[in-house]
Amino acid sequence: MAEPTPTAPEGSRYRVDPLTGDLVYVVAARQGRPNLPATGCPFCPGGLEAPEPYDVRWFPNRWPAFPDERCEIVLYTPRHEAAFGDLSRAEARKVVDLWAERTATLGARPDVRYVLVFENRAPEVGATIAHPHGQIYAFDLVPPRALTELERPMTASGDSGPGAGDDRATPPALGPDAAGDRLVSAGEAWRAWVPWAANWPFELVVAPDEQLPDLPALDDARRDGLAALLIDVLGRLDRLFDDVMPYMLWFHQRPTDGGEWPNAWLHLHLAPLYRSAHTQRYVAAGELGSQVYFNPVDPAHAAARLREA
């Protein structure tokens, strides 16, 4: 069955590829954005984007992909050389709280239907500033990848398939996939595991054990649990090859368009780039041309390596 394609808002800059149905947003103005800051770090206290001291901070992106201040930067810490895995639980909890607050605030806007919280870490994935930070895009539609997950029926872990036997429900589109020999870390109502059909060699999914729709829905205990598990798994990625692991990270959560979305189950996708020390896993023509992915590392072996890290 073909993936659903959202309808582009009238008068928008979205284009739909007539062959594939892929959605493209043309942002010609971003071509002029700088690759690196000319002087100093703009995200350090006293810098261009952070003139005052802060613990965590957000501000509108100067080079947005969308208009109307629907793209934001989130600073995780004032410490330039830190990584998320270096944060204390209290520091990481402040990041989680800010993600939730910005999701609620942006999602309340009438022109926003979906809030995507994400991070690109390291130059290999296009991060031009080393200071620990992420981004938020507030979409005026539900993006196709998120929509695909949301439109799949909820799957109970007792169903047949990989990892069957767990009697709890699992996130939509993830299936009975969150246990067994691919489990990497668990604690305080959250689990992190390597997906059964991982696209990336050391890919991870992080999700709460209980169905919760979005970041604002997390109570204090689950926010603490998410902060702790992110410190754990992101630290493991850096220890895996004793090097900074470039990665892409994004949350999928409930749309903010007022719909019911019964399958919404908050979870995080984490795509690390290295398949071995200093060796990047490239998605090349055979995969892009077929949309079939060839993973050189067995998911169970990847999980074992991450557990050991």
3D structure, described in words:
This protein is of the alpha+beta class and 309 residues long. It has 5 helices and 15 strands. It has helices spanning 89-107, 144-151, 220-240, 285-288, 299-308, and strands at residues 14-16, 23-25, 57-60, 71-75, 114-121, 133-139, 155-156, 169-170, 183-187, 190-193, 204-208, 247-252, 267-272, 274-276, 279-280. The strands form 4 sheets. A 9-stranded antiparallel beta sheet has the order 3-4-6-5-12-13-11-10-9. It has a two-stranded antiparallel sheet with strand order 1-2. A two-stranded antiparallel sheet has the order 7-8. Strand 14 and strand 15 form a beta hairpin. The radius of gyration is 19 Å and the shape is globular. The N and C termini lie far apart (39 Å). Residues 154-176 have low confidence and may be disordered.
Write the layout of secondary structure elements.
Layout: E1 14-16, E2 23-25, E3 57-60, E4 71-75, H1 89-107, E5 114-121, E6 133-139, H2 144-151, E7 155-156, E8 169-170, E9 183-187, E10 190-193, E11 204-208, H3 220-240, E12 247-252, E13 267-272, E14 274-276, E15 279-280, H4 285-288, H5 299-308
Antiparallel strand pairs: 1-2, 3-4, 4-6, 5-6, 5-12, 7-8, 9-10, 10-11, 11-13, 12-13, 14-15
Helix pairs in contact: 1-3, 3-5
Major sheet: arrangement of strands: 3-4-6-5-12-13-11-10-9
* Largest β sheet strand count, sense and barrel closure: 9 strands, antiparallel
> Quick one: overall form?
globular
Strand content: 15-25%
CATH class: Alpha Beta
Rg from alpha-carbon coordinates: 19 Å
Q: Give the topology string: H per helix, E per strand.
A: EEEEHEEHEEEEEHEEEEHH
Helices, by number, come to 5
What is the CA-CA span between the terminal residues? 39 Å
Instruction: Specify the CATH homologous superfamily.
Output: HIT-like
Question: Percent of residues in helical segments?
Answer: 10-25%
How many strand elements?
Answer: 15
Tell me the CATH topology. HIT family, subunit A
CATH architecture: 2-Layer Sandwich
Uncertain ranges: 154-176
SS class: alpha+beta
Arithmetic mean of pLDDT: 87
> How many domain units?
1
